[in-house]
Amino acid sequence: MKKVVILLLCLGSIALTGCATTIEGNNQNWYYAVAAPEHYKVWVEHLELEKPGERHWRMPMGNVECCWKGPKGPFGSGGRLSPFPNLIGIQWFSFAEQKFYQRLIILPEDLQEKMSVEATYQTSMGTFKGPRNSLIIGVAPGGTIVLWIMNQIGNEIEVARMQANEIEGDPTQYQKRTKSYLDEHGSYLEKHGIPTEGW
Length: 199
Known about the structure:
alpha+beta, signal
């Protein structure tokens, strides 16, 4: 009987070790990026992420000018989500509108689960499956925010859409950058305007 108990304890220990190894071996790297529509460049002043009780961190962003949708988007500059946050705070200046926007984003509770679902993607080596491990935060004129998840441009899924708050700010602090922006995109704005809906 004593040998049976010892054997069961050993087997239980091996099983638990196997589970722990599997969980650790399946650790997924999560990423984020911030995107804006082409021709509607923004300056992200603050991007803060938080997993309450575990970590609060800031990510420097600055200039964001592409890409919202199409063959190059949604895609933008970003980094790793480590740990996976519950909250994202973002504040930006819209060069086209000369306005400041801000929003605290409470991520959907099932977002990480949705991102874990495998999706097909293609590389020069062939077709593969993997989790949609990138969260794209799109910011557009009018204060529109759209969240997508994806592992490759073209298989993105929209998971949330919300409205940022317009806040007070001094556009003259971006005077030089605004001039450079208008030199590059002014004729486009004159022709197409600044759509604040339909993003």
